[in-house]
Amino acid sequence: MSTVSFLKNIRAALISIAGSLAAICIGLLLVAIFLVAVGRNPVETYIGIFTSAFGGSFAITETFVAATPIMLTALAVAIAGWVGLLNVGAEGQLYLGAIGATMIAITIPNAPSWQMIPAMFVVACLFGAVWSGVPAILRAKFGVNETIVTLLLNYVALLLVEFLIHGPWQDPSSSSWPQTMAFSDAAQLPHLFASRVHPGLFIGIVMAVFFAFLIPMTKPGFIIRVIGGNPKAAAYAHLPVVKYIIISMLVSGAIAAIAGFGQVSAIEGRLRSGISPGYGYTGFLVCWLARHNPLAIIIVSIFVGGLLSGADSLQLSTKLPFATVNIMQGTIFLTLLMFENIIQRFSSATVEAKTPEANI
Amino acid sequence: MLSPTAAPAKTKTNNHITSVENMLPNAKQGISIRLESISKRFGNVLANDAVNVNIAAGTVHALLGENGAGKSTLMRILAGYHQPDGGSIKLNGNPVTINSQVQARKLGIGMVHQRLSLVPSLTVLENILLGDSKTSFIIDAKKAYKQISAKMAELGFTFDLFSPVWRLTSAEQQKVEIFKLLWKDAQVLILDEPTSQLSPLEAEEVLSVVRDLASSGRTVILITHHIEEILKFASEITILKNGQSLSTHKASQIKAADLAKLMIDDSVNQIQKIPAKTKNEIYLKLDNISLHQSANNRRLTNINLELLKGEVLGIAGLTGSGQDEIAGILSGQIIPNSGTLYLEGKELPWKVLQDPCLCAAHIPAHQFYGSIPSMSLIDNFLLRDISNKQSLMLNKKHIQEKAEKHINQFQIRPNNPSNLAGNLSGGNLQRMIIARELNKDANLVIAVNPCAGLDMAATQYVLQELRNFANQGKTVVLISPSLDEMLLVSDRIAVVCAGKITGVKDTCEISSESIGLMMGGLE
Asked: Which ipTM was obtained for this model?
């Protein structure tokens, strides 16, 4: 690569990063207007969020705890996105993973940990893959819009959890609480660093690094990029489009399911309806903020995880409702999306002007 | 040459009339058009080179020429889509500047494009109202229906105004497009290949409507490749060639064969043909192929075709006669409903043609099918190397070197291999696809309109490369709208008409005129 084009790439990357930072600042400014309107000091609030997200080891580990399911679901969305599909169903796939893990934990409660954890992991992945496999097959074989199907399956998944914890799986010892019985010790993922951080975080990071390598460097990665870039060209080159679409969606669902497995096994220790405050949807936003880049997903999910864990302090110190964080997240996402076009215009202005296409 | 029938402006002495009000009194008597030394350049391509055309009011004037002769560019200039780099336009003898489509419309000029611009899900009535500035915020459908059907009756149009457009036949859709212009009071109608998607009968139907419009005082400019149609429906013909206007003729005074000879490009150098050493050795054979979507929609019927080693086989036919389907089958994109494939004498399943190692080099008809705009040139070159031979890991250095070699060989500009394919111009994108396909190690090459968007030198180069393939004993199938390209490089030409092969002839035995007749199913 020539130095000129290398410098151009660097410049485009810098413009992109600067644009994202500017967008985040504008988003924070807009939220500041809201905070002032409800009589809070925005600077204090932001400092509060920052210190409770990143100030001190406890804060940081809690940020990682929140970032784990976000990272995994964001990766799930990205994998589908690379083949050009919109998986809005990470939330449902997460719940299916939780159901799968719980099923093993409560059916063989006395199994030793070395059998229990792998079994929970595998069944969780299988359940998540089934949940994403249905829209994948409908899409690949019948052309049904996967966005609608994955979105609607989220509600089915949530209702399925409600049914299980109110019905067959309800803990007999606490009949008033809609939840399963607590998992045995063998069914609980170990915690690390004397905190609530669990191996799910490392699965996420390893996966992200793995995909960051697979997509640009390998043959399957290339096929995935071609299918996402132009499925017609993929068919022209006789690439196995249907196979790759289905496999990608199955892997996507399985990775989202790992998030659910982590939540029930390491955080809650049982299945309840509140195991995810919309991690699947947050993961979707994070994936788009990171522009489907797996390494960027790691960073953005830690940032957003910090916002979420900072929300607790917001509730306590400033008496603002938890929804304020959702407002903040949504506003920043919107400003980033709006900046996307502007950034592209700036970076393409540096590239040579297009020669007009002769139409003769 | 014809003298312009410039109807003298009644009382005007003003030479620079551009306002509508001044034009309209003349418009009622028809508008004559004088295009004087119009030039237009796109990048490296000189699309129009000092073109002169005089068009009399109230006539059908045909523009004839090969692809890329500059017909569409000239008409897009007249309709306000492009501004000419030089030259002048005179309507009824008055010079005008046409800066925009809106202004062209005000001057009474309207154009129907090759690709129709109707909304299929809306009704005919809604489509007519769509581009109409008279349409108010709240649509008074009843009033509009009355006015439109009155106008239709006046002009002799019949179609169901309440039918959604997708239900209409292609001919009816074409007529709706023409009527849309008339509804906007167009006095000059430019029709860009209106019959390319129509059957001969439908073409007749549409063109007789067009002829009636001309005899009622409107000026019609017709772009088409069909010489027979022109002789039947146009009164004058201007031939364009390589961006220049060659000559103008009266339809009554010229023969089809002479027109064909005039429009053919003779500036392409002779291409060296080496007769195949192993004559008549069959590489691939399609035996009794049929392709249909339903019982009454047959796209290919009983096709028998033998592809010989060491030959270029041209497949000629009017647009949509089945040549694209044959290319689709040979490249493994389409599997026919019935018929047998023989490869070097062995009966084989159709899936063989999809094997990435065995499949043909294929220059597709549409650049979009053969490229990924969002990916780099390096990746686009790699697209066809993804076979079983490709290792799991991509060898970036090797791939990049290969890409640079292709870029230099075919002079793709800009020449940075990391550039996105989507940033290339049409001609350079075509070069990229050709570079990739011609470097593919394949025994069969399927080239569909390979020279689209290429200049003369590149065209020459590509045709020579295709010929070289055949000279090496490989098999080449060439499908092109330009008969001359095919006559130049092919050993044999198969002609398709309405999904059937109407003849296979050695190139040395036939002329473009007899191919023309076979394409129309007349021989």
From this structure: 0.78
